[in-house]
Write a structure and sequence with these properties.
Belongs to the PspA/Vipp/IM30 family. The protein has about 220 residues and is mostly helical. The protein has six helices and no strands.
Length: about 220
């Protein structure tokens, strides 16, 4: 089952109301109706748990990826410093360029982590709501069955099923908020010479590399003074 199908079932179950069950209970075996609803809750709760686990795994992987990139940036710091002290300008520039690439990738990694955190939170909320709803539904249906059994034992004072259902249904009018999706990608960039844009990107990167090396040289000079 895909995510959209799961969200649809979750929304339907969370919006379930005792009113909708009265007709079924009157026309079918009450125990069968109860078991049918509880089985569906258990199935969807199981799927929601798997869904949550996937988001938690994605969050963990994003966190690990960020840590790896930060570690590599730190290692490059030491390597670039050695290259500068040894007069290996080309090696230092290569290391600085790689650092800049890694730092740029961190922006995307942090965005991905934020998305997985939000999705994990939404999945956790859905799972908690399902569990609470299942418990409430089980209690409400059990009360309804008990009321019906009591009415059969005391025919002189029958209970009013519709009024009972109305009373039990007071706590079941919540509807789940619509699951939020990721915003669509931005508009396509304006028509431009792709080769010129690539050249500008390369020049900007070269400038960033030069500025970084200059800062490292200054730092080394200050440390040696």
């Amino acid at each position: 089952m895909n995510s959209e199908g799961l969200h649809s079932r979750i929304a339907r179950l969370l919006a379930a109301n005792v009113h909708a069950l009265v007709g079924s209970i009157e026309s079918r075996t009450p125990l069968a109706v109860l078991e049918q609803y509880l089985r569906e809750f258990d199935e969807v709760i199981g799927r929601a748990r798997v869904h949550l686990g996937r988001h938690e795994a994605a969050r963990y992987q994003s966190t690990k990826a960020i840590a790896r990139v930060n570690d590599e940036i730190g290692r490059l710091d030491a390597q670039i410093a050695v290259a500068l002290r040894s007069g290996e300008e080309a090696l230092a520039r290569t290391g600085a360029a790689r650092q800049i690439e890694l730092e740029d990738s961190l922006v995307l990694l942090h965005q991905r982590l934020q998305e997985t955190v939000e999705r994990t939170g939404a999945a956790e909320a859905e799972l908690l709501a399902l569990r609470a709803k299942r418990e409430e539904m089980e209690l409400a249906l059990s009360d309804l069955l008990a009321a019906r059994a009591s009415a059969s034992l005391h025919p002189a004072a029958p209970s009013a099923p519709s009024a009972r259902a109305q009373q039990l249904g007071l706590g079941f009018s919540r509807a789940m908020a619509g699951a939020s999706g990721l915003p669509a990608g931005g508009a396509a960039p304006a028509q431009a010479d792709a080769a010129s844009l690539r050249q500008l990107d390369a020049l900007l990167k070269e400038q960033r590399v030069s500025e970084r090396l200059e800062r490292l040289r200054t730092r080394q000079g200050s440390a040696a003074a």
